[in-house]
Amino acid sequence: MVISYIIEMPRVPQNPLLKFIIVIVAFITLSNKPYLCLCRCPDYESEALLRFKSSSNDSSGSSNSWVNGTDCCMWDGIDCNEEMNHVTRVGTTYSPLSIQAGIISDSLCNLHFLTNLELSGDGLTGTLPPCLGKLSYLRFLILVGHRLSGEIPSTFCGLTNLTYLDLGGNQLNGSLPSCLGNLYSLTDLSLDGNKLSGSIPFSVGSLSSLQNLFISHNLLSGLIPLSIGNLSSLTYLDLSFNHLTGTLPSSFAQLYSLGTLIADGNPFSGNILSSVFPSSISTLSLTLNQTISETFFHNLTGLDALYLSNCVLNISTTWIPEFQLIILSLKSCIVGGQIPGWISTQFLLKELVLADNDLYGEIPSWLFSPPMNFLTLSGNHLQGKLFACNSVYLKLIDLSRNELSGPMPSVWPPYLGQLRLNDNRFSGNIPSSLGSLSSLSLLNLANNKLNGTIPPSLGNSGYFLRVLKLGSNSLQGMIPQEFSKLRLFSLVIKNNKLNGLFPSSILNFSAIRVLDIGNNSFEGQIPKTIGNLSELQVLVMKGNLFSGGIPPQIGQLKQLQILDLSSNNLSGFIPSSIVSLQAMSVATEDGNILQEENAFVGHFGRGSYQDDLVMHPKGTELYYPYILSTLTGIDLSNNQLNGDVPLDFGKLKGLRFLNLSMNNLKGTIPHSLGNMSQLESFDLSSNKISGNIPSELQSLSSLAYLNLSNNNLSGNIPQGGQMILFENTSYSGNQYLQGCPLPKNCPWPKFAPPRPLSAAENKDEEESEQIPWYQLGVGWSCGAGFLIVVVLLLLVRERWRNKYFKGVDDILKFLFPFLRNRRL
After folding, report:
1. For the whole model, what pTM was predicted?
2. pLDDT in tens, 372-407
3. Domain 526-756: top CATH class
4. Is the dihedral of CA 14, 16, 18, 20 positive or negative?
């Protein structure tokens, strides 16, 4: 093809000899420069890629260049080998494929020369095609962070050239293939963050080239195989947060290259001895339900990072470790009262976590000495005052959930990024000097005894401030106008004495996700522009003095999951746009904690925060220390709202809590509420609702709390589904309502609902339905009774007895000729 192309070039001289020389020279040149080949990738490979494109959605836009009829080797995200123009890479470093939705098409299995398959994003679903195991040239298979499910195909064990396998962060289940040891070329194996179960196969010890093994956050159980000690090249091992039992095998001591061992979050039984650790370990993370002493660290002379939890430290106060730690984390341990003195010998310590250890006493000043970067002492009983510190090294201070008291210091580390002092006993004013911390990204001073006003200087905290929590104090005054300069993700100032109109500065927080200003004295109307906060997930404005109507623009908050406007002076209709809240319209079963989604990027990297919430969904106050993405609720109670309940409220199928009580609502209960399959609590009490209770409410199988009392309802109470379980207090105060459990027209004894049957009684009832013992008993009883009556009559009356026997003789005489002829 190359030669014919050159011969047909218009500028080639027509002299046959000269043309022949040019062709030979060109052929030799192209033979030595294969990248000048003018051939195209095979059509079947182009078709395979186009089929994959049609089954997925590439948000990176790389696949936009994938056009039928063009050379697939020229497409973005595709690499080919230079000699034969076969596709070798799908998803490259310079042109990654980020899949937003779709499946892994079987067509990729037609790319027989594929060496790299790297699909980023989070949208792939379905299962792993078993035919991928036939791609014998495959070296890199990276499908991390998607939603792939099903088992890992055993055909993958045939990928003997595979060196890098990353299937982490999916939903894969089943057990690890027993043939896993066939992947002898593997250097990196990552299966963390799935739902894999069963035991770790013994064959894993055959992966002689393995350097990094990540199988954390799964459901793996059983013992750690002894064969793992054969992994002489292993440098990083993460087994954390599984269900592994037993203890660490003695063969771990043979892992001479192992530098990092992470095995916390497993219910290990038996004591783990220091002899199992190779001296090469520099990072160790364990959950130990045992007492450890200095001898535990005998072989760990090169340790620089130590993470321990759930253990008891019985260590002498005069002990001086042979190692110098950079990171020390002791969580939920018993360390002996005060902060251990041996920690002061760790002169290289940059990160110290002593959380939930029941420590008491005062905080020693040496903890704030260089080169400490991150200090966490939360969840203890530390007391005393907090002294000033201006260390240029400190970037995070977490002293939350202690018993610290007194005024807060006015001097702070200049590059502090996160300050958590919540749940203590600090008093006095909030220092205005906090506003000079230009790197501050999180400030949590909630649940203290702070008073005074919010310093306007906090509005000058800079671009990085993302989380501000000042709730449950005694702060007064208004929200400073300087707050309009901030770009907050979360603002929680609930349970204070703040006042004034709705803070207009909040409307500039375009990225805000959690806004809780409840239980203050704010007044005025809710501005229409609140609908511009498009990222808002939680909106709590309860317990204030807001008046006017609920703006219909609130329906524009597509991400909103919690809407609490209760206990205000709101009036007017419930806007029909409220049914447009998309996050409440999708029924979901599993959810994540919002803090994981509400991560932020500060001046010194990523951080996360945890939001809590108090709601009144079931007639009582409920505290949620975590806000799950499945927690959805609307509370408009204790206002002056009137008009009808929106007829299409049932569109909010994902709503779990709905409280419209103590208003002036009229009209009827919408039939569409029967579509709210996840509704757990429904309170419509103390309104002016009339008409019947819709029979559709019987289908609400999740409904655990119902209050329709003190309305104008009439007719019969539906007697099916969950409705039969509620007491009369759910329906009282409706003059024309009747039926159980109300006394009027209720056939139940003492107006109590029939007792639900236990599992054993249900089983007996099912068996009784299968065999009609009752009917059989009635039949036998009737037959026996008839025979007894006949016998008694024959014994008493002689005339009846003679007629009876004469009738029997006549019948026998009549039948005898027939019986005889039949016998002959």
Report:
1. 0.79
2. 999 999 999 999 999 899 999 999 999 999 999 999
3. alpha beta
4. positive
